[in-house]
Amino acid sequence: QVHVVESGGGSVQAGGSLRLSCEASEYIYNKACLAWFRQAPGKEREGVATVDSAGAPSYADSVQGRFTVSQDKAKRTLDLLMVSLRPEDTGTYYCAAVIWSRCGSRSRDWVTSWGQGTQVTVSS
To answer: What is the mean pLDDT of the chain?
Structure first.
């Protein structure tokens, strides 16, 4: 059963912007927080951005200052605005549900459900 669905993504040149959106099912949204991960070719999946139970954002060092995460509780969504994109941001971006007790974590250890992923390609 699919609990989180991503949309957005695409191909841009370096310096460009993209917005990703993640929508969660009502079932999972009441049990978990949402987070964004990404996986570059040949690399491990890494946590990019999330919000904790109080709504405070958290970012990987590599995207701090360039990516902004925002949630809409009424719509059960977590958006990721990415600006000043770099070729090294290329990869498949996944939305994930993180168990409530670990909200704010960007570790894969606490993920209970993954989206299908959306591709982001940044060309130089």
So the answer is: 95
Q: In what order do the strands lie in the sheet with 18-24?
A: 4-8, 18-24, 77-82, 67-72
Q: Which residue has the tokens 């890494």?
A: 46
Cα 91–97–102 angle (5° rounding)? 110
Q: What is the CA radius of gyration of the chain?
A: 13
pLDDT digits (tens, 9 = 90+) for 10-40: 999 999 999 999 999 998 888 899 999 999 9
Q: Which long-range contacts (CB under 8 A, 24 or more apart) does 51-58 make?
A: 51/78, 51/103, 51/104, 52/103, 52/104, 53/100, 53/103, 53/104, 56/104, 58/104, 58/106
- Tokens representing 14 are 């370096």
Instruction: Please tell me the distance from the alpha carbon of residue 6 to that of residue 86, in angstroms, as a whole number.
Output: 21
Cα–Cα distance measured from residue 53 to residue 100, given in angstroms and rounded to the nearest whole number: 8
